[in-house]
Amino acid sequence: MVTYIIRRLFAAVVLLFVISMITFFIFYVFPRLGGQTTESLASQFVGKTQSAQAIQGVIHRFGFDQPIWVQYGRFVKGIFFGYDYDTGTQMAHCYAPCLGYSFKTNTLVSTSIAQWLPVTISLAIGASILWLIFGVSVGVASALKKGSFIDRAGMITALIGVSLPVYFVGPLLALAFVVNWHIFPDPDYVAFTSNPVSWFTHMLLPWIAVAFGLAALYARLTRVGMLDTMNEDFIRTARAKGLPERTVIFKHALRAALTPIVTIFGMDLGFALGGVVLAEQVFNLPGIGREAVDAVNQSDLPVIMGVTIVASAFIVLANLVVDLLYGVVDPRVRVS
Amino acid sequence: MLRIPWRSTAAAGTALFLAAAVTACSGGHTTNASGGSATSGGAAYALSAATPVAKGPIDSFSWALYAEPTTLDYAQAFDYPQNMILSNICESLMRWNPDLTESPGLASSVAQPDPTTYVYTLRSGVKFHDGGTMTADDVVFSLKRQMDPATGSTWISTFDNVASITKTGALQVTVKLKKPDSQFGEAMANSAGTVVHASAVQAAGQNYGTAGNLGCTGPYTLGTWVKGTSIELDRFPGYWGKPALAGKVVFKFITDPTALTNALLTGAADGGYLITPDSYARLKSSGVGNLYFGKSLTTINLNVCNLSGTLGDVRVRKALLLALDRSGFVKAGLKGVGTVTSSIAPADSWPAGAVPPAADLAPTSQDLTQAKALIQQAGATGKTVTIATSPIGPDVSLLATAFQSAGTQIGLKVQLKTIAPDAFTALFSDPKAREGLDAFPETYYLSTTDPLAIYHIFGTGDFENYAGWSDPAYDKLIDQAEAEYDPVKRAAISARIQKIAMDQLLWIPAAEWPTSLFLDKRITGAPTSISYLYYPWAADVGSAG
Fold first, then answer.
1. How far apart are CA B42 and CA B323, in angstroms?
2. How many residue contacts between A and B have a Cβ separation below 8 Å?
3. In this model, does residue A322 exceed pLDDT 90?
4. Which of B208, B229, B288, B465 to mutate to probe the A interface, most A CBs <10 Å?
5. Per-residue pLDDT tens for A128-178?
6. Which of A26, A27, A48, A205 should be substituted to probe chain B, the one whose Cβ sees the most B Cβ atoms within 10 Å?
7. DSSP code of B486?
8. How far is residue B540's CA from residue B524's CA, in Å, rounded to a whole number?
9. Does residue B226 belong to the interface with chain A, where contact is any CB pair within 8 Å?
10. What DSSP state is assigned to residue B76?
């Protein structure tokens, strides 16, 4: 098992390395292939009134005058060893894991990400709990009462949920529950450590908005999985042994039906931790998704790189955890 | 100065929807919006000279802002987010008042012993936020820093005619000019004239403006800056002027227009400038506060950047102006809050009684017949015009689409080239970014109350003279106007300059766009005019009840 984990971790590092190369290539090389010069790139960071001297200063300061492979090498070196950085007036050291300095705000990318991450984690974890609980519950209820009113109502709701994107559900919820009925406060991030109650009330609407669509998806998946499993031989055997129906359903059927749910949950959670872009934008939450969008709009390349690496790490890690959980959830996998 | 009011990801889609409305709308009539009510494009609105005076102090208020500033360095402050905040922290030698006049700021007086000399006498006992006292040395340092190419100041062109800046007394600074320059004196009321504590800037080095002590003198100090979320300003107890009414101001960065409007409706933010036009009706009818419009010195234009293409023929440019349904643009794009115009200089930028007659300008109504005739005379039928558009804001995408519609109606082949928001910003500064384009939309506001501030752009070699146009006669008039210190006489020269510029149509005007301001019922006192970019407006905001 330990060997397996080490092997997977090594593969994850290689994967992140490849991702970083591709990202670097997309944002540093593609624009040049499209005709962008180092001068035009630098001109975005010297204000409106520009001088050739100022542009050359930025080119040198940001390292645009160096070959691409040197720039990439400096980025990788920074992650593992840190590097010295020219602030324009003095040299500063960026300690490992150094993701560089923002071109726009002149702050450490890692520091910025550390500020944004609690927001995204709060949103992703809270929403994932909601979508998992409601999605699986509705799916199980629908499967057990197939064809009933509960089943039909659950699946119609699921269909609606799948069809409505966050940028529609979010403003709608805000309009109803915040603006018109004043039930919830305007979504705004309050740190859990400063006020847990306020954190909860401010995050509830974003959680619901994100969870609605995914809960619908999970309900449909769970329903299908449960219906298939309930017809399996081992369920018939369990019933024949005289086990109570509750035990048959929750101990045997649900566990088996959960395997694909765990798979997709891991990926969804990893994806959400990488930045719930639309929800953060709609509810004005300063998470890494919203900041990534801003960084792309501002050509803030170090921030784009940093956010991509962190988001990728979450997805890779989530997949690793899912693989390990397979054995726990489904004994058949453990045996194999 | 450039205006980039929205960064809505939904803007492009919205623009496509609204574009149809632009092409469909017509009619409406225009009256001068200065100081009163106006109608345009079929909608009506009123400009407010001010909001009701605050009745007392308050602990704090919150303010919605569509974007986070990247820096609060006064030398880099050239757009709404920075200036709206910085105007309450840092001050200039002169002050731009809510009625858009100028008065002494950190300088108690200014004298001009001869046309090439400004002598600023400084207020005594003015304290910086870090406890130091303002001296002439600080003023010299602050102004010279703007001139240093290493600073990369946005305001460096203000100092083009400056020969020297010297301390001539304990509280006196003398600026010597290479030639008479009325614009320099006016610019000392905006960020170009900001005074900071030299030691604070030197101590912060390259990090100056990103956090901590800014070494300024304004009614508020920079408090907590939570990147991506908010900036807090705290009342400065040692302020030399009238103390701020609110103990704290919290600027909240809300990038999504809908979320920003919701924040205003729910009280999550007490107020905000730069309301998106799509929210005017909702906020106005909400009953939770008041929506105001004010003087903005802002026009929305199409900037020609290539005179060797189809737009090189002035008849084609005139045809585009005549074909553009400006009334429809105001109605659809600005929700009726704006006025059509045939001048790129806002009406409010002229001294009272010195506004040139409308007869000097092209008519504001659409005239497709004449436009088509001009295109035929120019032999431009079927020729291509490439206009940049971008999801950077609906004003950009809507105007580009409106011009596409106008051009198509008169026989031009108008191509829209969509450019990413970051690349669009580069159009204003990088000639290479403008390659392949004939024109691009820009919303432009003035930082001084003077039409010359916009017409100097077409002077030979000016960095905003995107088309590279040159006319020695025009340059001579610009020099004459800059050398004229009497505002009315200068306006008379500016009127002649305007005649040439608007005959050439290097920027094709579409509309004037007032400022917008929303205040909930808890607060009042904020100015309605664009002065908030340089005037310490937050200090006037207090309790409404």
1. 19
2. 137
3. no
4. B229
5. 999 999 999 999 999 988 888 988 988 898 888 888 888 899 989 988 998
6. A48
7. S
8. 8
9. yes
10. G
Backbone angles phi, psi at B494, to 5 degrees: -65, -30
**Residues in chain B with pLDDT values less than 70:** 1-43, 422
What pLDDT shows up at residue B36?
43
User: Identity (one letter) of the amino acid at B363?
Assistant: P
Residue A296 above 90 pLDDT? no
Give the C-alpha separation, B438 to B448, whole Å: 29
Given a contact cutoff of 8 angstroms between Cβ atoms, the answer to whether B233 and B61 are in contact is: no
User: Which pLDDT score is estimated for A87?
Assistant: 58
- Determine which of A47-61, A254-268, A272-286, B454-468 has the lowest per-residue pLDDT on average: A47-61
**Is A283 in contact with B253 (Cβ distance < 8 A)?**
no
Instruction: Name which of A58, A112, A281 is nearest B227 (Cβ-Cβ).
Output: A112
The C-alpha of B230 sits at a distance from chain A's nearest C-alpha, in angstroms, of: 10
- Contacting residues for B59 by C-beta, under 8 A, at least 6 apart: B246, B247, B248
Q: Give the pLDDT confidence score for residue B432 in this predicted structure.
A: 80
B38: Cβ contacts below 8 Å, ≥ 6 apart: B30, B31, B32, B44, B45, B46, B47, B339
Distance CA B98, CA B539 (A): 13
When pLDDT is cut at 50, 70 and 90, the band that residue A333 belongs to is low
Contact B432 A299 (CB under 8 A): no
Does residue A266 contact residue A319 with C-beta atoms inside 8 Å?
Answer: yes
What pLDDT does B399 receive? 92
Q: Give CA–CA dist B10/B391, Å, rounded.
A: 8
Q: Nearest 10 degrees: CA dihedral of B40, B44, B50, B53?
A: -170
Token pair in block for residue A27? 């944002």
pLDDT the model gives residue B27:
30
3-state secondary structure of B89: coil
A114–chain B nearest CA distance, Å: 11
| CA dihedral (B184, B188, B191, B192) positive or negative | positive
Tell me how close the Cα of B152 comes to any Cα of chain A, in angstroms. 6
Give the three-state DSSP class for A152: helix
Q: Who contacts A289 (Cβ-Cβ below 8 Å, separation ≥6)?
A: A120, A274, A275, A276, A277, A278, A279, A280, A281
Nearest CA to B187 among B329, B327, B74, B308? B74
Buried b / exposed e along B71-98 (16+ C-beta atoms within 10 A)? bbbbbbbbbbbbbbbbbbbbbbbbbbbb
> Please, what is the average pLDDT of chain A?
84
CA distance B319 to B343: 15
Q: Which two tokens stand for residue A110?
A: 């890692």
CA distance A57 to B95: 33
In whole angstroms, give the CA distance from residue B271 to residue B260.
10
Least confident of A14-28, A76-90, A267-281, B386-400: A76-90
Using an 8 Å Cβ cutoff, are A329 and A259 in contact? yes
E-assigned strand segments in B392-513? 413-418, 439-445, 507-512
Residue type, A119: V
Instruction: Name the one residue in this structure whose structure tokens are 């808890």.
Output: B522
Burial class (CB in 10 A: 0-12, 13-18, 19+), B499: middle
Name the nearest CA neighbour of B48 among B450, B523, B525, B521: B525
Nearest CA-CA distance, residue B67 and chain A, Å: 10
Instruction: Identify all chain B residues contacting A26, using CB atoms and an 8 Å cutoff.
Output: none
pLDDT of residue A9: 84
State mean pLDDT over A243-270.
Answer: 86
SS3 A179: helix
